[in-house]
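ok so for the tutorial part 2 we go from a plain amino acid sequence to predicted structure tokens. step 1 is just haveing the sequence, like this:
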Amino acid sequence: MGKYVGIDLGTTFSAVAYIDEKGNPQIIPNKQGENITPSTVLFGGKKPIIGTVAKRKSITDPKNYEAFVKRHMGEKTYSFTTKDGETFRPEEISALILTKLKTDAEEFLGDTIEGAVITVPAYFGDPQRQATKDAASLAGLKVLDIINEPTAAAIAFGISKDVDTSQRVMIYDFGGGTFDVSILEIDADNIRVIATNGDHKLGGYDIDMAIVNYVKEQAKENGFDVNSDIKAVQNLMIQAEAAKKELSSDEMTTISFYIKGEDFSIDLDRETFEDLIETVLDTTVSVMQRTLDESKLEYNDINKILLVGGSTRIPAVQSMIEEETGIHPSSEVHPDEAVAIGAAYHAVDVVKQISDGTFKTETRDTGKAFIPSEIDTDAVPDLDKNYSFHDITSHGIGVVVYDSSTDKMVNSVVLQKNTEIPAEVIRDGYSTTSNYQEGIQLQVTQGEDVNLDYVTIIGEANLHIRPRDHIVPIRIMVSCDRDAIIHVRAIDLDENTDLGEVTINREKHNMTEEEVRKAATRINKLNIGD
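step 2 — the prediction. this is what the tokens look like for a chain of 530 residues:
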């Protein structure tokens, strides 16, 4: 029969949820009985270990331990190397985590996972989103849809609280490794994202590192070099995370570990802790204000600030938000589970849409509709409430052009940031730069700045054009599908000919089709589910 689930593939923890036959959301526990699974992998044995056991054993084998891999999704140059010299791409590490989530969920449910909605940070760009889809493919998961984490949390909030009046909600999503702020309008039937901002390399990890660096300095003053003992460094990382959590409820905690066989202990009080993380929290305030500015709203236009992500449990985070905004933040949804639950609700909706032919998404680079081969509508319940949601682009998409006034190459944004998706924008006013030009080097950008130093080149292609004795006008068409995957086309307006789709150079950031195929075989042989 099969089940359809929502997956929050987090930086520090991941979760899986489904909607039961009565229409109630259920978090699926892993084999260890935990509702959330640490997104950690330990190599070195007969097969990789994932989750809590990997985290615990990492102290004795830190060189074979990988965590926070989500921060490296979409980075072609990053790989993890085990002590034996075996390398793994971020997509492969994430696939191992997803494989455990899938296997544990199927064992708990006594059924197969037929499809999943997977969430990503709102501020993930094209390379990170494609890497997430590749990781799911390696794990043998059929991806029904990719949605933003704040949107998923808003769905969970809207349905669980039975929202029936229009309100503006700011989602403050402070997770283990990523940070997003989104402003949404929610009413009885719709969720519309107005603006989003964030940093996919800002999160609880940075708070942990503030503690780690402080302890290292204190240890050095007492004659201990923590960095000289790799096992001590790993132990300290775990101790720092535990201290952060303890200081959310207690005024004092003690960090104690061994450095080259010698015991070292230090007390850490909440006041010192809050001083250590002030810079991190100030950064989140800046992101909040920038998001507000882009939405052309004031804080008094916001009805509610909803806290999502484990790092929002820190009292200093909550007091900082209230001091900055004048709004007491709400913990009405579970910070660790809301995203997976919202994704599960959306999975039900997607299956219904696929069944009646109203749902469309796209596969990698093809532009063809992706429809799972079999959809079992009996596997999903009828819900009392469904949301139609409207998401937006988190980055501007443009092309590199020559600016004759400055004699420089600059970024020209075609698809503006915060545009509702799916979207297509057609823009004229481009052209070749010389007579008898035979080709165009078209570079696609991600970012809003005119200066190329502050944007990312996400794709490029050399397009052939028939040479003529004059400048040829060019039209650029940029589309963004509902997964926020980008497509770009160029049109020769002189002859009204399609120069072809500019394939986003995902090989610069992501795995090629051949690499995906080989990695899938490799992941399958590791037998994570045994």
